[in-house]
Automatic annotation (TrEMBL):
<feature type="compositionally biased region" description="Polar residues">
    <location>
        <begin position="1"/>
        <end position="23"/>
    </location>
</feature>
<feature type="transmembrane region" description="Helical">
    <location>
        <begin position="118"/>
        <end position="140"/>
    </location>
</feature>
<feature type="transmembrane region" description="Helical">
    <location>
        <begin position="455"/>
        <end position="475"/>
    </location>
</feature>
<feature type="region of interest" description="Disordered">
    <location>
        <begin position="1"/>
        <end position="74"/>
    </location>
</feature>
<keyword id="KW-0813">Transport</keyword>
<protein>
    <recommendedName>
        <fullName>Major facilitator superfamily (MFS) profile domain-containing protein</fullName>
    </recommendedName>
</protein>
<feature type="transmembrane region" description="Helical">
    <location>
        <begin position="351"/>
        <end position="369"/>
    </location>
</feature>
<feature type="transmembrane region" description="Helical">
    <location>
        <begin position="381"/>
        <end position="406"/>
    </location>
</feature>
<keyword id="KW-1133">Transmembrane helix</keyword>
<dbReference type="InterPro" id="IPR011701">
    <property type="entry name" value="MFS"/>
</dbReference>
<dbReference type="GO" id="GO:0016020">
    <property type="term" value="C:membrane"/>
</dbReference>
<dbReference type="InterPro" id="IPR036259">
    <property type="entry name" value="MFS_trans_sf"/>
</dbReference>
<keyword id="KW-0472">Membrane</keyword>
<dbReference type="GO" id="GO:0022857">
    <property type="term" value="F:transmembrane transporter activity"/>
</dbReference>
<feature type="transmembrane region" description="Helical">
    <location>
        <begin position="82"/>
        <end position="103"/>
    </location>
</feature>
<feature type="transmembrane region" description="Helical">
    <location>
        <begin position="320"/>
        <end position="339"/>
    </location>
</feature>
<feature type="transmembrane region" description="Helical">
    <location>
        <begin position="225"/>
        <end position="247"/>
    </location>
</feature>
């Protein structure tokens, strides 16, 4: 889908596009190759339309390009480096989500607040991480361009390890706010990959029910939430050490750039990428999807913590941790087992619309669960909760769908990193205000008793319905491989 057949264009634009953030770098076999393809392959593997050999004969330069392609195909995939980057990328979502299972009780107990005010502070503390992260993201990107990928990444990972562990030592609301901002300061260079960490290591404030010797120690009696934060920080620290010891630098020196492409063509600017056909629409759908997901993620633990009479489930920290763990395992199962065959069968667009169509019903199940428990139908409640959670977790496939749509709509593989950087910026911006907005709305609904405390779910249902409408405007170029047809009998082609 490249716009130019200039063989010198892609080699440089790959270098330029892949230097937006430390973890969006291309594999070395691609980033340092002498020449790019005249028509780079589609980001999702769709082959570009072949040249008409009756009207255009191959030139010597094209022969050289094919030889370069053969050499590139022989280069082994840097599996270890990819695995290290994947492991390093766990640090940011672990730091962000690790407090979710216990943050509500921590604020309720340490902040000495009424239950109706917990939601506002929960959203504020959760949002500060992303707000600071978004403010420093460009700084980290520029630092990585100047200093190299590896040193900036290791610095970021080391800082987030310490900051995450410090959060559990907070003794009042303002210490929690400062610790959360401090963690966000070191999260600007890490690509966001959504994941969860169990919160079952939060020590209960009632030490008579403590699960082990750690929680009975005097230190954890004074800081009951420190153990969970220490474990999250330790996980981040292991990724720091792995990156420092094993990860290779991917930033090219000036001499390497000159040798790889002596006559570079100017890459597409960020504005040109942003205004390319279909890109704004897909970014809008991506942002809407993340908006709904982050709103649900912020509200769900608060809903589980809230008392039954106020519209929640009155779960303990351990029950919230189990709920999150089951949801995480279910999402992983849907992604690993269900998504590949469904995407091949339905295509990206149809699968996305199917997932989004189910979301209003999934959101509607939560007030129903509260009503079952409110009226004493415990067996019906537990019999409904787990099937709903396991089946409803399938909506997580929409995240993979919008990511594939971003790849498909990219003007070329050379600017794929830029497209993903734009999406990452959108995601960080949404994550900066969504938790505080929706947890505050939840608190207002609980405080005033609107719809028996279920106001937030009616809002989320409306957001889900609006997202379903948006998905029908997905560009044809981003619909995936559904209905692929052969072009000219050569076995190649793309769905459009």
């Amino acid at each position: 889908m490249a716009k130019s057949a200039d063989p010198t264009q892609d080699g440089e634009t790959v270098t330029a596009a892949t230097e937006s953030t430390p973890l969006l770098s291309a594999p070395e076999s691609i980033a340092t190759r002498p020449n790019g393809d005249a028509k780079p392959p589609h980001p999702n593997g769709h082959a570009a339309k072949p040249l008409d050999h009756d009207t255009q004969s191959p030139s010597p330069s094209s022969e050289t390009e094919r030889e370069g392609d053969d050499e590139e195909e022989e280069c082994p995939m840097p599996t270890l480096q990819i695995l290290l980057l994947c492991y390093a990328s766990l640090a940011e979502p672990v730091a962000y989500f690790s407090i979710f299972p216990f943050i509500n009780e921590m604020i309720f107990r340490l902040g000495d607040l009424p239950e109706s005010s917990v939601g506002f502070w929960t959203g504020l503390i959760e949002s500060l991480f992303s707000l600071v992260q978004m403010a420093l993201m460009i700084f980290y990107g520029r630092a990585a361009d100047r200093l190299g990928r590896k040193p900036v990444l290791v610095f970021s990972l080391a800082g987030i390890s310490v900051a995450t562990a410090m959060f559990g030592l907070s003794q009042n609301l303002w210490q929690m706010v400062l610790a959360r901002c401090f963690a966000g300061c070191f999260a600007g260079s890490v690509v966001t990959i959504r994941t969860m960490i169990r919160g079952s290591l939060a020590c209960p404030t009632d030490l008579n029910h403590a699960p082990g010797a750690f929680c009975r120690a005097p230190f954890f009696a004074q800081f009951p939430y420190a153990l969970a934060s220490f474990v999250a920080g330790a996980l981040c620290l292991t990724s720091t050490l792995a990156a420092q010891i094993f990860l290779k630098e991917t930033l090219q020196t000036a001499a390497q750039k000159s040798a790889s492409d002596p006559k570079p063509a100017p890459p597409l600017t960020t504005w040109e990428v942003l205004t390319s056909p279909g890109v704004p629409t897909v970014l809008l759908i991506f942002g809407h999807t993340m908006f709904l997901a982050l709103a649900y993620t912020a509200v769900s633990p608060l809903y589980q913590f809230t008392s039954i009479e106020n519209g929640g489930l009155s779960f303990s920290d351990a029950q919230i941790a189990v709920f999150i763990a089951v949801a995480g395992v279910s999402q992983a199962a849907w992604m690993l087992i269900g998504f590949p065959p469904l995407q091949r069968w339905l295509g990206t667009g149809r699968l996305l619309r199917a997932c989004v169509a189910f979301q209003p019903f999934f959101m509607a199940s939560y007030p129903l669960l509260n009503e079952l428990r409110r009226h004493g139908y415990e067996r019906a409640f537990w019999g409904t909760l787990w099937p709903t959670l396991i089946i409803g977790s399938g909506v997580a496939m929409s995240f993979a769908c919008v990511q594939l749509a971003l790849n498909d709509i990219s003007p070329s593989s050379a600017v794929l990193a830029t497209v993903n950087a734009l999406a990452l910026t959108v995601n960080s911006g949404i994550r900066a205000f969504t938790p505080v907005a929706f947890t505050s709305l939840y608190a207002v609904g609980v405080k005033w008793g609107w719809a028996d405390g279920h106001l937030i779910w009616f809002v989320l249902i409306a957001v889900a319905v609006a997202l379903y409408v948006d998905c029908w405007f997905l560009p044809k170029a981003a619909e995936g491989n559904y209905g692929r047809k052969k072009v000219g009998g050569d076995g190649e082609g793309e769905a459009r």
